[in-house]
């Protein structure tokens, strides 16, 4: 979204000028004192070193991680794997639930779990109740997985999560489910549908900052009838981005993809962590041989 600034001018009688000058000086001194004692960002927003291209393009981020399995007997979704940072010195972390696509299991996206977690997130890669679950069901399961993380996950995981900073992502029908989840829970901080498939084409109710990642050569969820339509239907008043990968098929997320991971991490850091250091990777729009198209509302600081 574009930034707008309003300049306000004060016109006063000359007789008040000296008094106003003194008042302005006092306000300036107070402001300087506050600036000297207040951080530029809210405490805990920035986690990890200053981001660079090299950091985001590496196979792992700056945080060491661990993982734990989730039983298929949990209510609401089919279990899965949790990846979480080992660091306990920087406060709590945001959390993201990720769904695989139709007929797929979490193993098809497994590389993504530790990669995102290593940038300072708790990640749950879910198994769905059945491999044939449709997008609306996958959306509900993503939300159930987030609720599990916040309320019922092991203490070593739960204690690391900020329940106010949650996000969803998914591939194919899991991407369609990501849109369903974002539409039904506007309190989410971010959503990343990847090569999303959904029969529902309009998402005018989505208010969650959403980055859609599509593949130019996707024959299963062609971008013209899925990703681009979804992006266009999200209101311009909502933060959104569309990343299209050059010559990528529907299955591009199933192998490590540097361009996808870099943009996805930057989006999550910007909107889940509210870390404005990552705006530089989103606006101005990224470019390169791996990207065939990019659209973006440009994050508002």
Short description:
This protein has 301 residues and is of the alpha/beta class. The protein is 29% helix and 20% strand.
Q: What do these coordinates show?
A:
- The protein has a 9-stranded mixed sheet, with helices on both faces.
- The termini are close together.
- The protein is an alpha/beta fold and 301 residues long.
- It is globular and about 45 Å long.
- The protein has helices at 17-37, 53-57, 112-117, 135-151, 155-158, 173-184, 227-233, 258-271, and strands at residues 65-70, 80-85, 93-99, 121-126, 161-171, 190-194, 210-215, 240-245, 291-296.
The structure class reads: alpha/beta
Beta-strand content: 15-25%
The CATH superfamily turns out to be: Alpha/Beta hydrolase fold, catalytic domain
Q: Unreliable stretches, pLDDT < 50, 5 or more residues?
A: 1-44
- Terminus-to-terminus distance: 9 Å
CATH first level: which class? Alpha Beta
| H and E string | HHEEEHEHHEHEEHEHE
Please indicate the count of domains: 1
Helix content: 25-40%
Strand order of the largest sheet: 1-2-4-3-5-6-7-8-9
Q: What is the average per-residue confidence, as pLDDT, rounded to a whole number?
A: 88
So what's the overall shape? globular
Key features?
301 residues, Rossmann fold, 8 helices, globular
Topology:
Blueprint: H1 17-37, H2 53-57, E1 65-70, E2 80-85, E3 93-99, H3 112-117, E4 121-126, H4 135-151, H5 155-158, E5 161-171, H6 173-184, E6 190-194, E7 210-215, H7 227-233, E8 240-245, H8 258-271, E9 291-296
Parallel strand pairs: 3-4, 3-5, 5-6, 6-7, 7-8
Antiparallel strand pairs: 1-2, 2-4, 8-9
């Amino acid at each position: 979204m574009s930034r707008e600034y309003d300049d306000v001018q004060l016109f006063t009688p000359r007789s008040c000028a000296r008094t106003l000058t003194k008042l302005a000086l006092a306000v300036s001194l107070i402001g300087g004192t506050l600036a000297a004692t207040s951080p530029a960002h809210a405490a805990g927003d920035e986690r990890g070193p200053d981001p660079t291209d090299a950091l985001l393009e590496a196979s792992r981020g700056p945080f060491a991680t661990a993982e734990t399995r989730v039983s298929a007997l949990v209510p609401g979704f089919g279990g899965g794997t949790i990846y979480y940072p080992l660091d306990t010195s920087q406060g709590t972390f945001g959390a993201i639930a990720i769904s695989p696509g139709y007929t797929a299991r979490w193993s098809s996206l497994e590389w993504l779990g530790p990669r995102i977690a290593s940038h300072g997130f708790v990640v749950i890669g879910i198994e769905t109740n059945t491999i044939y679950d449709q997008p609306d069901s996958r959306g509900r399961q993503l939300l159930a997985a987030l609720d599990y993380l916040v309320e019922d996950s092991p203490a070593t995981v739960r204690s690391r999560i900020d329940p106010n900073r949650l996000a969803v992502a998914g591939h194919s029908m899991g991407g369609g489910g990501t849109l369903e989840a974002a539409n039904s829970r506007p309190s989410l901080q971010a959503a990343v549908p990847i090569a999303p498939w959904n029969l529902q084409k309009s998402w005018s109710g989505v208010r969650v900052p959403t980055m859609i990642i599509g593949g130019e050569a996707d024959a299963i969820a062609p971008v013209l009838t899925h990703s681009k339509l979804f992006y266009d239907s999200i209101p311009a008043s909502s933060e959104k981005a569309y990343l299209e990968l050059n010559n990528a098929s529907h299955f591009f997320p199933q192998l490590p993809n540097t361009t996808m991971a870099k943009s996805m991490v930057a989006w999550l850091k910007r909107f889940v962590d509210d870390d404005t250091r990552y705006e530089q990777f989103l606006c101005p729009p990224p470019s390169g041989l791996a990207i065939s198209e990019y659209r973006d509302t440009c994050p508002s600081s």
